[in-house]
UniProtKB/TrEMBL annotation, chain A:
InterPro entries: AAA+_ATPase, ABC_SmlMolc_Importer, ABC_transporter-like_ATP-bd, ABC_transporter-like_CS, Mo/tungstate-bd_C_term_dom, P-loop_NTPase. This is ABC transporter ATP-binding protein. One of its GO terms (molecular function) is ATP binding. Belongs to the ABC transporter superfamily. The keyword Nucleotide-binding applies. PROSITE patterns: ABC_TRANSPORTER_1 (PS00211), ABC_TRANSPORTER_2 (PS50893). It holds the Pfam family ABC_tran. Keywords: ATP-binding, Nucleotide-binding, Transport. Gene3D superfamilies: 2.40.50.100, P-loop containing nucleotide triphosphate hydrolases.
UniProtKB/TrEMBL annotation, chain B:
The keyword Transmembrane applies. It comes from the Bacteria. It comes from Chelativorans intermedius. This is ABC transporter permease. Keywords: Cell membrane, Membrane, Transmembrane, Transmembrane helix, Transport. InterPro entries: MetI-like, MetI-like_sf. PROSITE patterns: ABC_TM1. It is a multi-pass membrane protein. The chain crosses the membrane at residues 12-31, 73-96, 102-121, 161-180, 217-238, 263-285. Belongs to the binding-protein-dependent transport system permease family. CysTW subfamily. Residues 74-283 form the ABC transmembrane type-1 domain. CDD domains: TM_PBP2 (cd06261). It is found in: Cell membrane.
Length: 364, 294
């Protein structure tokens, strides 16, 4: 069964460089928690701190409320799945899976039996005596998971294990990982820079940047109520309209932007006069028919259409900080209809407009 | 080969090819063939060479077998060379592992320099330095006596200890570098994965590092063994009558006894045994020539 993991004011320094800064959070037993952030944000360092390959400069790591300081990776109730999987190429598949048991002094017959059980769990029965080099990428992936689960860890740590797989397989492995996590009840801590992975699999996500955890929340919270511009722009696509807040009305605020006033949710209760940004997700914008109105509206010439199949991305000229993107569902006629228009009227509701303090975005 | 021709043009390619072939033929193959030929002929005064008594015979090999002292030295040399090999492996394995997987950047570079610099000094001089350290009134004995650890100086020279120490030292690089090469290509994550799965340091080496480094271990052992079995400088300087090396016997047949045919037979016997040793090692470690060539 899973155990909780607690980071208590953890800081990790390498010389002058601060890789992780004052991180405090608690991951529940049996939770699927993802650290999401760009490369170099410190998420891999956090994983190594939990697994025991590093000790924090300051603060404490607790697993199952037990302080882990001084306890090496071979004696922690964690198992790590490496980005490159790090399977042992000179051992057979079953020896790989049973390696942790071998290290614990389990007899050969029992090791073999346990390895075969796990091969059933990962849907690779009959692969016990194969060489690692005979496996496909997805199969190796699953063997790495089985090898980690064989030692019955309380916490499974995954370091971007899906990044080397192709798109189809990656999507398949997402649901498989989730299913294995539910079945075993082990706490999963997942490191990724891929927001799609984090959003689909996780119970909660911690978004990281430059060594700090900016926001912790359920996927929907992260996406629909981001704490700041960085989280908003890193997770999902977004249209940004910088401006100044001119009026407050309850939980809503009016912001004066270069393309006119917009009404949005004042998530952080920013006062009048504050420089802020209005943020709208591309799929929450729609093209208005003649005479139709919306809470917020802007007019612009379509610059480009990107056909994605299920969706069509419409890029508008110079309305926001960068080009504005609309994410429209393809009903078979959408593109033809839009291409006929020289000027589009775009509308979005107050509910879809988030007002956030200005700050660093993931676009740099 | 075609690549060589394409890149350098036919003239240079042919020259490179020809000089290599000449080198191999005249410097390696021909002398060996002559030595083998010598070893099967009796030792005769120049006037009788090519005469009726100059026939092929196994007499020279029979001498080696019949002479219990020489036979004893022969097998002792093989045994001692194995011991040197094992000792060198034991000494060099941690060094190579540290270099390949632990040391970083400048520290690693410094360590490599520290390993190589002594080898800029001639082998004879290096061995002589050990003579100074280990001799009866040498630094090591003085230190031990000075610290009160022993009452009287120990006789290191003239026994096997001096020869062993000298040889392990002399061949460190030939063991360290093949090991280092093999270990360096091991993905660090594999070591971490093994550790994360609960393996002890011992098991990580036994199950992950050593299997990976096996070709390097084989190459290092073969080189060290061959050099040990074939050296004459170290046993000459650091050994005594009781630690005679087989090469010294060969030497004396050639230069003291003047019996080249007998010496050739002894040398050929040593060569054969060394080749057998290599084949056994390769079999034992299950490495092929291709692995070693890497």
């Amino acid at each position: 069964m899973g155990q909780s993991v607690e980071l208590d004011n953890v800081t990790m320094r390498f010389g002058d460089f601060v890789a992780v800064r004052n991180v405090s959070l608690k991951i529940g037993a049996g939770e699927f928690f993802s650290f999401l952030g760009p490369s170099g944000c410190g998420k891999t360092t956090i994983l190594r701190l939990i697994s025991g390959f590093m000790e924090p400069t300051e603060g404490a790591v607790r697993i199952g409320s037990k302080d882990m300081r001084g306890i090496g990776p071979n004696r922690r109730p964690t198992a790590l799945i490496f980005q490159n999987l790090a399977l042992f190429p000179l051992m057979k598949v079953w020896e790989n899976i049973a390696f942790g048991l071998e290290a614990r002094g389990v007899g050969k017959a029992q090791r073999r039996r346990r390895a075969e059980e796990l091969l059933d769990l990962i849907a690779l029965p009959g692969y016990a005596d194969k060489a690692v080099s005979e496996l496909s990428g997805g199969q190796r992936q699953r063997v790495a998971i089985a090898r980690a689960l064989a030692v019955e860890p309380a916490v499974l740590l995954l370091d971007e294990p899906l990044s080397a797989l192709d798109l189809k397989l990656r999507q398949h492995m997402r649901s498989e990982l989730r299913a294995i996590q539910r079945k075993t009840g082990v706490t999963f801590i997942y490191i990724t820079h891929d927001q799609g992975e984090a959003l689909t699999m996780s119970d909660r996500i911690g978004v990281m940047s430059q060594g700090e955890v900016l926001q912790i929340g359920q996927p929907a919270d992260i996406y629909d109520a981001p704490q700041n511009a960085f989280v908003a722009t890193f997770v999902g696509e977004s249209n940004l309209f910088p401006g100044t807040i001119s009026r407050i009305e309850g939980k809503e605020a009016l912001i004066e932007t270069a393309v006119g006033p917009m009404r949005g949710r004042n998530l952080h209760a920013l006062p009048v006069g504050t420089p802020a940004i209005a943020l709208v997700r591309p799929e929450r914008m729609r093209v208005l028919d003649a005479g139709e109105a919306a809470d917020n509206m802007l007019e612009s010439a379509p610059q480009r259409f990107d056909f994605e199949g299920a969706f069509i991305n419409v890029l508008l000229d110079g309305a926001g900080e960068r080009e504005t993107i609309l994410h429209l569902t393809n009903d078979g006629r959408t593109q033809a209809r839009l291409q006929a228009a020289t000027l589009l009227r775009v509308g979005f509701d107050t509910d879809a407009t988030m007002i956030l303090p200005q700050g660093q975005t993931a676009h740099g | 080969m075609a690549e060589l021709f394409r890149r350098t043009g036919p003239l240079i390619a042919w020259m490179a090819l020809l000089t290599t072939l000449l080198w191999v033929a005249f410097m390696i193959v021909l002398p060996q063939v002559m030595m083998v030929d010598f070893s099967f002929r009796p030792s005769l005064p120049p006037s009788k060479i090519g005469g009726p008594e100059d026939v092929y015979t196994l007499k020279n090999y029979a001498t080696l077998w019949a002479n219990t002292i020489h036979r004893g030295i022969f097998f002792k040399t093989i045994w001692s060379s194995m011991l040197v090999t094992v000792l060198a492996l034991a000494v060099c394995y941690p060094i190579a592992y540290h270099l390949a997987q632990v040391a970083r950047g400048q520290a690693a570079a410094l360590l490599i320099v520290a390993l190589i610099v002594p080898f800029w000094v001639n082998e004879i001089l290096r061995t002589f330095a050990w003579f100074l350290i280990l001799s009866r009134n040498g630094i090591f004995n003085s230190a031990l006596v000075g610290l009160g650890l022993i009452d009287r100086p120990i006789q290191f020279i003239d026994g096997n200890i001096g020869v062993m120490i000298g040889m392990v030292y002399a061949y460190i690089l030939f063991m360290v570098f093949p090991l280092y090469n093999a270990m360096e290509s091991l993905d660090r994550h594999q070591i971490e994965a093994a550790r994360d799965l609960g393996a002890s340091t011992w098991r990580i080496h036994w199950r992950v590092v050593i299997p990976h480094a096996k070709p390097g271990i084989a190459v290092g052992c073969i080189m060290t063994f061959m050099l040990s079995a074939g050296t004459i400088a170290v046993p000459r300087l650091l050994g005594g009558p009781r630690s005679r090396w087989f090469t010294e016997v060969i030497y004396s047949w050639f230069f003291d006894g003047g019996d080249w045919n007998q010496g050739a037979a002894y040398a050929f016997a040593l060569l054969i045994l060394c080749i057998v040793f290599i084949l056994v090692m390769m079999r034992l470690f299950r490495v092929s020539l291709q692995d070693i060539a890497k």
